[in-house]
Structures are given as C-alpha cells and as structure tokens.
Amino acid sequence: MDGPELGFAIEQDVPEDVHAAYESLLAAGFDSRLLKP
C-alpha cells in the first residue's frame, strides 16, 4: 500500500517531462535525500 491507499496523500498524475527530469537527477546521483527501501 502507498500513501493514497492509507489516506496520507492523493493520487496524482506526474507529467512525462517531470518524471524524465526526476529520472535524470537520479541517474546523475542526486538521491541522498530519498527514502531507501
């Protein structure tokens, strides 16, 4: 279960360009503030 299912957030669509920018930042190593599983 994610946040929306638990009532912590609402489900939202992420625009493709925003998702691409996020993936680009991850690939460049900008991930120190992300939660690790």
Describe this structure in words.
- The chain is mainly α.
- It is 43% helix and 0% strand.
- It has two helices and no strands.
- It is flat and about 30 Å long.
Summary tags:
37 residues, mainly alpha, flat
What order do the helices and strands come in, and which of them pair?
Blueprint: H1 3-6, H2 16-27
Brief account:
With 37 residues, this protein is mostly helical. The chain is built from 2 helices and no strands.
Multimerization status: single chain
Largest sheet: none
Tell me, what's the shape?
flat
What is the helix/strand order? HH
* Range of helix content: 40-55%
Whole-angstrom Rg: 12 Å
**Strand composition percent:** under 5%
Instruction: Point out poorly predicted stretches.
Output: none
| Cα separation of the termini | 14 Å
| Secondary structure category | mainly alpha
Determine the mean pLDDT.
87
Count helical runs. 2
Number of strands: 0
